[in-house]
Cbb3-type cytochrome c oxidase subunit
Amino acid sequence: MGNGWSWYVIALVALNIGGCAWLLWWTAKRRPGDPKPEDTSHVWDGNLTEYNKPLPKWWINLFWITIVFGIGYLIWYPGLGNLHGYAGWTSQGEHAKQKAAYDARLDETFAPYRNRPIDALAADPAALKLGRSIFGNTCATCHGSSAQGATGYPNLTDDIWHWGGSPDRILETVLDGREGVMPAWGPTLTGMAGENAVDYVAAYVRTLSQPDALRNDYMAAQGKALYDGTCVACHGPAGKGDPAMGAPDLTDGYWLYGDSNDAIRQTIAKGRHGSMPAHRALLGETRARLAAAYVWSLSHKPAAPNKGD
């Protein structure tokens, strides 16, 4: 707050307190010519009389005590512009104090799970319960409460992992986030093979999960040459992708941005930019580890016991 505004607040507070004190003093006085307390001449229905009796002294004194208390409060706590209160109290300091207390309680709660392996946490029901709660508070906004994702947000309950599905890779994703970038190939492909080039590549990409379809598909056959010249660097010759850079496997039939012709064409022509935020600063390593364990457990269900066991 600037000094001008600070002095404005101080003056406004002083004016209000002084005004209240003056009003209390002025209205409590009896003046010459005032009617007697028992005689105001305000009578209704012959026997209902309005008296002019002053407030009791104890009531008046309570008003004065309130004013004195208010002045003391403003001196003790910071309530006069930029002036610091005598107690040194600040809302920022109070927040920091309470946060430190809550952080200590959280550390105590999560201490048993610190640095434990992801797969071990996934086998611990108490750890999974905490991980599910953390997931619901921080991850469900994008991936859904059931973790099945949506268009542009991966399904975490299947066995398809663009950045790798090992416990360590999942923890790395939660802690440090991911940036998945698919370049816009429309101008390049159009320059190579004309206005139908994107359609050719889209047709070929579809056949990667159905190799036999390539034999009788003219557009896909044209698209293979274009794919080999532009896409293999990330997705590989067979379309299996590369988890090291987040390039998806094009042979599994899973389409993060939709499997319609328009969606695939847009991905090829205009590219995509998927961002998974880093949660290290927000959650800390232990809570991120619990969330990763819960996510890993969704696609690694424990084997059902044999009936004979």
Summary: Residues 104-177+277-298 form a domain with the Cytochrome Bc1 Complex; Chain D, domain 2 fold (CATH 1.10.760.10). The mean pLDDT is 89. Residues 3-28 form the longest helix (26 residues). The chain has 13 helices and four strands.
